[in-house]
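RECORD TYPE: protein structure
NAME: Class I SAM-dependent methyltransferase
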Amino acid sequence: MSEAPRPWPQADLEAVPQCPVCGSAERSLLYKGLTDRVFCVADGAWDMYRCAQCASGYLDPRPTPESIGRAYAGYYTHDAEDHPIVRRKGRIRSLLHDLINGYQNHRYGLQRSPALPVGRWLLPLLPSLRTAADAECRHLPPLPAGGGRLLDVGCGNGGFLLLARQAGWEVEGLDFDAGAVQAARLRGLEVYHGGIEVLDGRSACYDVITLCHVIEHVHDPLAMMRTLNGLLKDGGSLWLETPNIDSLCSNEFKENWRGLEPPRHLSIFSRTGLEKMSDAASFDITQYFWHGVSASKIYISSQTIKSNKNRAPKFNPLTGLNAILFDIIEMVLANNREYITVRIKKAA
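PREDICTED:
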C-alpha cells in the first residue's frame, strides 16, 4: 500500500465555489483524493468537481497562485531537448521521421533534414501521423504579406518557437518557469519570464498566439482569454490545445487518466466549456482539429499510472493493440478525442 501524501499547507489553499470556466455554482463531485501520480513531486490530495452547466472539471480547493510553483519541481519544461513525433531509430522509424520532415517542409515552409520530399504525398496516406505532424506545427496559417508576429504562451524550452521562426514568423515566448526561460534564451529566443501580466500595456500586436497545454494550468482562464483577445490584431487567431475531459482515455481510466495531473491541471475542459468561455471572451471557434498519435500515448501512460508503477510495465501486446484501437476510434468520434485542439478568431 502506498503512503498517504503529505497535505498541501492549509494557508496555501483557496476555495473554488464556482466553475472557473463558466462561473456556474452547480456541480457534482467527480473524483476525491487525487494525487500527483505523473511527476510525483506535488504534495496534497485533491478533489475534482464537474460543472453541471458546461461539464468541465475543476479542483476545489486548489493551490493559491503564490504556492502553485511548488508543484512544478522537476517539470518537463526544464528539459532543453525537443521530442520528435517519431524518433529516427531503426529503418522503419527513420523512414517515417524523414517522411514527416518532407511533409512539414512542403506544408509549412520548414527546412528540416534529413527529409524525403515524397512525404508531401505519402504522409496523407497515414492519417494519424499526418495530423500529428500538423499539430506539431500548430496548424500555422499562411504567413501574412510582409511577415507576421507570433506569441507562444507557455513556451517551455522554445521548441515550437524555433519551428515557427524557421517557417518565417517573428517569434516571442512567455513562460513562468525560470528554468524553461533560461533554456529558451540559450537557444537565441526572445522569451519573457512570468505570467500574462508581463505583457500589460501591449495591444493588437500579434497575428497568431498559441497555447499548447497551458489553459488547464491557469487560475483564471477567462481573464487570460480576454487578455489574449486584446493582444491579437484584427483578424488574428488563437491556437489552443488542452486535455478533453470527455476523451476515450478519460472515460476508460477515470481517476487514473494521465490528463488529470493534479494539482498542476486546475481545470479540465469539455468542448462545451471551451465554447462558452471563448464566447464570453469575444472569440469565435472557427475550426476543430484532430491531434493524431495522442490517444495511444495517453492510453499507455494511463495504464502505467493504473499499475501504480514508476515506469511503464513490461510490453503487453494486448495493451499495445488497445492503444492503437483508441487512436483509430478517436479519428471518428470527434467529441471524444484526447485533446481539444482548436483555432479561435477574434469576434468581428
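COMMENT: Residues 18 and 25 are 4 Å apart (CA to CA).
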